[in-house]
């Protein structure tokens, strides 16, 4: 059974259709990649899915429940959680405090929320930064913190928006390993990424978006051989 189903979901801003009618099924435990040029509608899709933006049309089902038009908090409580391309932790709070804020959405007891947050901080490999101010973290640490804040909500599905952006190649490999282990723990993953080596290594299926629409969808090797995808996004150098 599909964990997430989109049926004709779209989003317009005034006269601009940022996301055309999109129909998609994501089975439980898929690692689903999304690529596309700037302005293709990838972030808009995430914002609609995660409840930051209400769709202009269509229906979204998650785990058999109609989540169309739900708020971000309600959507997250249902198990669908996103990360942001621009990470905005509370810089003058520690890593543990930042994750505990997220953890409070799951656990009412302050002790339980804090214990859960500490376990998640360890889970993402930030143990040595547990009591460091978030503002002092290097970029790779901020990426881990962003993942921790999402994982603290115990998602069934996580939407990752360019989690590798801004990292140098040597910093990417450990984060890719972390994404793999999160997936191995049973979390369904949908991710937007521009780093093609990571896209190819991680995606079980790959969606290419262009001008708010699906340009191609299928196995990654098939998709990147598609001439329309090469013309619109990859360029001849990649093929
Ligand atoms: N809040 C908004 N108001 C008006 N237009 C918007 C808004 N958000 C996005 N857009 C427009 O919608 C289109 C899709 O933008 P979106 O950010 O979803 O693309 P993207 O594929 O995520 O691009 P990028 O790779 O640069 O992040 C763009 O033309 C953008 O300018």
CATH homologous superfamily name of the domain at 2-88 and 155-234? P-loop containing nucleotide triphosphate hydrolases
Nearest-integer average pLDDT:
94
Query: What is the top-level CATH class of the domain at 2-88 and 155-234?
Result: Alpha Beta
- Small ligands present: adenosine-5'-triphosphate
Strand order of the largest sheet: 6-7-8-3-9-10
**CATH architecture verdict of the domain at 2-88 and 155-234:** 3-Layer(aba) Sandwich
Strand content: 25-35%
What fraction, in percent, of the residue positions are helical?
Answer: 25-40%
GO biological process, one term: L-isoleucine import across plasma membrane
Keywords: ATP-binding, Nucleotide-binding, Transport
Domain ABC transporter: 4-236
GO molecular function, one term: L-isoleucine transmembrane transporter activity
Keywords, please?
239 residues, Rossmann fold, four-stranded antiparallel β-sheet, 9 helices, 10 strands, globular, binds adenosine-5'-triphosphate
What this model shows, in words?
The chain is an alpha/beta fold. It has a domain at 2-88 and 155-234: Rossmann fold. The protein has 9 helices and 10 strands. It has helices at residues 42-49, 72-78, 95-103, 110-123, 139-151, 169-184, 196-202, 220-224, 227-234; strands spanning 2-13, 16-27, 31-35, 57-62, 65-66, 80-82, 157-161, 188-192, 205-210, 213-218. The protein has a 6-stranded mixed β-sheet with strand order 6-7-8-3-9-10, sandwiched between helices. A 4-stranded antiparallel β-sheet has the order 2-1-4-5, with helices on one face. Strand 1 (2-13) and strand 2 (16-27) form a beta hairpin. Helix 3 crosses helix 4 (110-123), helix 3 runs parallel beside helix 5 and helix 4 (110-123) packs across helix 5 (139-151). The longest helix is centred in the C-terminal third of the chain and has 16 residues, at 169-184. The radius of gyration is 18 Å and the shape is globular. It starts with a strand and ends in a 5-residue tail after the last helix. The relative contact order is 0.17. The site of adenosine-5'-triphosphate has 11 residues, from strand 2 and helix 1. Adenosine-5'-triphosphate (ATP) binds at residues 13, 16, 18, 36, 38-44.
């Amino acid at each position: 059974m599909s964990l997430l189903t989109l049926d004709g979901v779209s989003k317009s801003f005034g006269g601009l259709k940022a996301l055309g009618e999109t129909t998609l099924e994501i089975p439980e435990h898929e690692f689903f990649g999304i690529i596309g040029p700037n302005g293709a509608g990838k972030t808009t899709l995430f914002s609609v899915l995660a409840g930051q933006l209400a769709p202009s049309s269509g229906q979204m089902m998650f785990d058999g429940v109609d989540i169309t038009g739900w708020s971000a908090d309600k959507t997250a409580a249902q198990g669908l959680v996103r990360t942001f391309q621009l990470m905005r932790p509370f810089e003058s709070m520690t890593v543990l405090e930042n994750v505990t804020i997220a953890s409070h959405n799951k656990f009412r007891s302050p002790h339980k929320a804090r214990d859960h947050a500490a376990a998640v901080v360890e889970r993402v490999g930030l143990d040595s930064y547990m009591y460091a101010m978030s503002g002092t973290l290097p970029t790779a640490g901020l990426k881990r913190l962003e993942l921790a804040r999402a994982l603290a909500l115990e998602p069934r599905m996580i939407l990752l928006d360019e989690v590798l952006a801004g990292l140098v190649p040597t910093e990417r490999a450990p984060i890719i390993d972390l994404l793999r282990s999160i997936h191995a723990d049973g979390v369904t993953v949908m991710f937007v990424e521009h780093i093609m080596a990571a896209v190819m290594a991680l995606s079980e299926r790959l969606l290419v978006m262009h001008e708010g629409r699906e340009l191609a969808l299928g196995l990654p090797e098939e998709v990147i051989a598609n001439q329309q995808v090469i013309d619109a996004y990859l360029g001849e150098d990649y093929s």
